[in-house]
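Structure ticket #2291
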Amino acid sequence: MLPDEIKKSLISHLALSDSSDYNLIATTISGGSINQAFKIKTASGIYFLKYNNAGRYPGMFEKEAAGLKLLKNLNEINVPDVLHYGSSGNFSFLLLKFIVSATERSDFWEDFGIKLAALHRHKAGQFGLDHDNFMGSLYQSNTFHDEWTDFFIEERLEPLVKMAREEGKIGREDVSAFGRLYLRLGEIFPETRPSLVHGDLWSGNYMVTEDGRVCLIDPAIYYGHPEVDIAMSTLFGGFSGKFYDAYTSYNTLEKGWQQRLEYYNLYPLMVHVILFGGGYLGSVQRILQKF
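Resolution: structure written out below.
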């Protein structure tokens, strides 16, 4: 059930006449493992809302809204419109335009690849972002660095390695293997200018809109190596080969990019080690065994 505090805030923001269920109908829908999610139907339209305890992930929805707005303003790839976010009582929430899912167009994957390539052509002078955000439910530091390898080690891998070790989810040998990897990353990763990346581009974070095109959700944006999005898209089932063909026809990736993807994916895999444990550590160890 939608908390009364949030319902009252929505009624005020959407300028509904009263709190009658005839004016605001909330239906529970799937929203992932972190937040509660609802389809909100009112006389003025249909919306998507997610909420959580305000003290659990401070600033999460504010950061997500900022990421969505940045992507929306670039107008390269579709994302939901941000309509409202804030706190009410013990809860924080984010209200978005509801995306009605439909069937993919015949050129869906080609169009997706081209649009991601266009997004990655937006560059910055440093790796990082002017604010931190979240990767799933974990805080994500985006402190600026001049070199991609330094950013990837200091802002992505090492914080999770320390956290996982403190929580007893990885062992001493795993920490040593990461240390050996760090010494080699400068040889593995090609130099590049920082590109704006979605940051959490797996199959659960895109939708198909009514016109059959892609819509990205749940961004964890920053300016990084464009191969991080390509890498994450291969986790948990991967995308169509047409996506990669279209992307690389517009953004040429340096030779050997397929072999580098597993190293970028150490970051999302370590996020899963911390949040879920289980077999994800085995995936990490299989990548690290080379070192």
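Closing remark: The radius of gyration is 20 Å.
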